[in-house]
Amino acid sequence: MHRTGDLYGHFQTLEQQKETATLGMWIFLVTEVLFFGGLFLTYTINRSAFSTAFGIGSNTLDITLGAGNTVVLILSSLTMAMAVWSAQVGKKKLVSIFLIATLGLGSVFLGVKAVEYKQKFDHHLIPGRGFDMKYHPAHPMPGDDPKELALEKKEVEEAFSHDPDINAHGQLYFSLYFGMTGLHALHMIVGAGLLIWLIKGSFTGRFTPQYNTPVEIVGLYWHFVDIVWIYLFPLLYLIDRHR
Amino acid sequence: MQSQLPIYPEQASNFAPHVDALMVFITGICVFFAAAITIAIVFFFFKYHRKESAAVGIVTHEDSRLEAVWMVVPLILCLAMFGWGAVVYVDYRNTPRDTLDVYVIGKQWMWKAQQPNGLKEINELHVPVGRNIRLILASEDVIHDFFVPAFRVKMDVVPGHYNTMWFRPTKPGRYHFFCSQYCGTNHAIMGGWVTVMEPSDYAAWLSGSSGGSGNPVVAGEKLFAERACVTCHVADGTGRAPSLNGVYGAQVLLADGSTVTADEAYIRESILQPNAKIVAGYQPLMPPYQGQLTEEQIFALTAYIKSVQSQPAPAKGSGIAPTGNK
Amino acid sequence: MSEHIVSPKVYLIIFAALMLGTGITVWAAFQNFHQFNIVIALGIATIKATLVVLYFMHARYSPGRTQLVIVCSVFWLAIMLALTLADYDTRPHDMTLAVPQVFYCV
Amino acid sequence: MSNTPPTSDLELPSTHYLNATYGSGIRSWLLTTDHKRIALLYLASVTVFFFIGGVLATMIRIHLLTPGGALVTPETYNKLFTMHGVAMIFFFLIPSIPAVLGNFLIPMMIGAKDLAFPKINLLSWYIYIIGGSFVLYSFGTGGLDTGWTFYTPLSSVYSNSAVTPAVIGIFINGFSSILTGLNFIVTIHTMRAPGMTWFRLPLFAWAHYATSLVMILGTPVVAITLLLAGLERMFHLGFFNPALGGDPILFQHLFWFYSHPAVYIMILPAMGVVSEIIPTFARKPIFGYSFIAGSSIAIAVIGFLVWAHHMFVTGESTYAALTFSFLSYLVAIPSAVKVFNWTSTLYKGSISWDPPMIYALGFIGLFVIGGLTGLFLACLGLDIHIHDTYFVVAHFHYIMVGGAVMGYVGGLHFWWPKITGRLYPESLSRAAAVVLFIGFNLTFFPQFILGYLGMPRRYHTYPPEFQVLNVLSTAGASILALGYLLPMIYLTWSMRYGKVAGKNPWPATGLEWTTDSPPPTENFHVTPEVTWEPYDFQNRPDLGLAAGTRPLAPAQGDD
């Protein structure tokens, strides 16, 4: 398919092309909403059935890292929005700066996520054969807060007397935790790839007030990923914190 | 009196005439519309056949009133079908109180049934004519479905849930039952026969074949002792756990102030996950039996608990709502 | 179609609101509001998501078509959640072993 | 002018999409972004899956000739019907009309040069091929015996067959469907030619718009559901496994949230095809254009509210069952509106007996039976008895084979001259349509009776009293097979030897018929401008017809 400048041959005008691309991204995001929606439904049904196990699982997550990551991600949304604005008003240098900032913040988010995953691995909380909710209270790691640990131990023991299948039900929580955050992280990685592509483009000064469609639609995607996290954070990290 | 090519199965339960009547009703409506449309199409097809190659049709203009008619008329008919179907379905889903309960377990690829007196059958089910029969369905592995065409009833047998179905046989005889939810390799041979008998024959059959060890009440009583249930669930209500005398079918008052009906599912849950619902006035002391009892053992315990209805009334109370509220 | 450019000032205000929302969510999680904890958490999340959609994603300044697309996605998600939960919530409680009623246990 | 235009003086255009621009080597096909060529890639690949599914179906019917099962072991039989279902539903029916005819025609019908995202269009074909390869790998290494519905815990725990690659394949294939739907919606919104307003859109485009809605809103849900089931199988998780606390009924909710609307992915495009064929061969504007267009959207929307009618006997709540039964009846109304409007279009028409018309009328006949028998299944009291019996099998084959495949084959006949530039043997194709219709009814009508008699579906062996009807059904299947083979043969033959068709052989009113056959790569030599209402034969002197009783100006096409 031939193209003239930034205009592909099957479009009449740049404006039509931009409209088309934007609508395409929005519709893609609709499918994403439904895609995550299936997971949210599974989560809801299981959480309501096994609220104790979900509460315990949630309390093992590090709320500081979770909340910190929320701040990081929202900040990256801000820099992304600023990158779009810079392109719209023609500040070519600022486009690159804000895009790089967004990529940096996204990487910080993924790094923190990796630290959290590692911790769950050490605590035998990865779903599968080795999964054991009682492992961590019995095998403290260096750097554990003894008060927190005692609380976790008490909770697990109490829960076991109510629900002999606490490991199975806790595993459901962690399956959903890894499923939902993993899928979210995968979207972040794809987003990071798109950002690298944009940054390369921005170095050549491609994005101008006349032509900034790629920045705009990657921005839409990035903000959507942010929204998913805005829901994941309270649903996964903040169950039964008041105990 | 099945002819060579029957078009409906025998009618042998209370539901069969209703379902068949529904069938006739909906078939009537559908045949009318199918015939009307077919006749119209065939008629137009020949009547307006193009005679000259360049001829065009005569424009007929859209008519909102006509469109409204053929939306509203089918809608009314649909509502009628929905309403009648709903009546039959609600009747089917609401089990009457005075039922004869038979436990049915589906597993790959056989059916086990257990009569009230504990008689066990495999791929057979004997029931008396004229009684309301309730089947309590459990699965040991995948989803199955208990289907008796002559009774026009079926219900899925879902692992982890109890489903129930009921019917009242109206005609003695032997009828096929099938598994109608695909369940793996031998799905097609996971079936058997329902034998509907005169009540007297049924009673004779029951007493003739029931062995003491097979009686679930006896088996349940034995389990009740073996598993040391009896040490806490003392019959006179003085134990650490509520007496189970007369608990079946009663309203039980729970620690959180709510009440539940003590039916099979409640008893099952109380055995497997005792701390899910704590009876008012008692401590959560009982260990959970999840994974420690087979479905059949649970049935036996339940049967025993159901049988201890007529013994002396508890002194301290069993948590049964009127007396258990201290 | 002339493009509406959102000023950085608006972005900063929205960012501040999002930060505030995050703070409130975390604070509220440590208070015991009984069954309202989840309502508060999801309520704040929805407000935050709405702000992101309206301002960061420019939905407020987009053509009606885009807004319709957004409404549709929310509507269909709602259909899926509502009709499925409607089944779970009206199941005959006494006959269900694995899954108790949804709204009372969350 | 004669009914079939004189062909001796017609020639194919010298350059068209099949030979122009990139030549015709294999690279020019595998790297093409031309929607017409991608449509042909799809045509070839769905035909492969149709053939696989058809062979499996034939084996099923032969096996069921005798009560004991004549051909294969129970395991093999279960694999046959599962693989038949998976191949036919996910890899033939869902992509057939949208990805072949829709891909080819939608840009041409609205006067665009291509779909909005040509590269994504090609990508979606590759995704389809990758997904299909996974599924074929599963078929080849142990087969699949879970039923196409993949109910848990059978699929996630108990089955010993190659479930994992199949689930991965269907998951991947879902994105092909999503991208196709996305492309159609955006194209119809932003790529219409000047003058092509929403209410001048061909009904085929309306139907595909509705179909695309279902694709983008439903497919993601089944993708994530099958992914969860696959993960559950691979890593022993417990989302849907009661032994680990999960709920198998939740799987059914999630699965049917897509898989019921998926039926509309199959039937809506076929309705679109019929809505094109009927006015063309009755030579008058379709009756109730806006009602047919609106009913497509209504079916797509209401179709999302009915899914739990597949679960009336799972023990779902009585209230939910009542709600879903009621909503299921509502979906009957827009379907009825369509049938009534098609029938009314014939009134006072000038009806020709060209082959596409025979297919379209056959479609109406079969769809009416399929649709009306849906009323039996939506009826709660009756569904207790006929759920999961052959009644259901017959019902959905009437919709999906009688309806969707009849529409697909009819559509191929209608647009074949546009796609290849050539005509096929007329009487032979008319005869094939009749054979198809008779064979289909003989195969599937007895199954309604079987179902009411109580024969459950997915049975490799059955009580002897059901044999007569099963033999009838198998006999019908052999006629049906002939009905499918005939078009395959003569359509292939016609690509080389058929008479040259010319721009507009029927003639029809759509924009796609104003350009060459086969069309040039960019579809139109100049961007068309639409000045006429849809299906208007009266004010189209370029068609060369006698407009009503008025004398007609000489034909003045732009040649």
What would you note in describing this structure?
The complex is a heterotetramer of chains A (243), B (326), C (106) and D (559). Chain A is built from 8 helices and 2 strands. Chain A is an all-alpha fold and 243 residues long. Chain A has a single domain, classed as Four Helix Bundle (Hemerythrin (Met), subunit A), CATH 1.20.120. The mean pLDDT of chain A is 91. In chain B, strand 2 (110-114) and strand 3 (120-122) form a beta hairpin. A 5-stranded mixed β-sheet of chain B has the order 3-2-1-5-8, covered by helices on one side. A 5-stranded mixed β-sheet of chain B has the order 4-10-9-6-7. A two-stranded antiparallel ribbon of chain B has the order 11-12. The longest helix of chain B has 33 residues, at 15-47. Chains A and C meet through helix 1, helix 3 and helix 8 of A and helix 1, helix 2, helix 3 and helix 4 of C.
Please give the structural blueprint.
The complex is a heterotetramer of chains A (243), B (326), C (106) and D (559).
Chain A: E1 3-4, E2 7-8, H1 14-49, H2 51-59, H3 63-89, H4 92-122, H5 135-138, H6 146-162, H7 166-203, H8 213-237
Antiparallel strand pairs in A: 1-2
Helix pairs in contact in A: 1-7, 1-8, 2-6, 2-7, 3-4, 3-8, 4-7, 7-8
Chain C: H1 8-29, H2 36-56, H3 64-90, H4 102-105
Helix pairs in contact in C: 1-2
Chain D: H1 26-30, H2 35-63, H3 74-110, H4 118-140, H5 154-158, H6 163-190, H7 203-235, H8 248-282, H9 289-302, H10 318-346, H11 355-378, H12 380-386, H13 390-420, H14 426-453, H15 467-497
Write down the secondary-structure element order of chain C. Answer: HHHH
Low-confidence stretches of chain D: 1-7, 548-559
CATH homology superfamily name of chain D: Cytochrome c oxidase-like, subunit I domain
As a percent range, the share of helical residues of chain C equals: 55-70%
User: How would you describe the shape of chain C?
Assistant: flat
Provide the CATH top-level class of chain D: Mainly Alpha
Q: Would you tell me the overall average pLDDT of chain D?
A: 92
- The radius of gyration of chain D is 23 Å
Largest interface: B-D, 89 and 99 residues
Tell me about the largest β-sheet of chain C.
Answer: none
Low-confidence segments of chain C, ≥5 residues, pLDDT <50?
94-106
Content of β-strand of chain C: under 5%
Number of domains of chain D: 1
Order of helices and strands of chain D: HHHHHHHHHHHHHHH
Structural classification of chain C: mainly alpha
Largest sheet of chain D: none
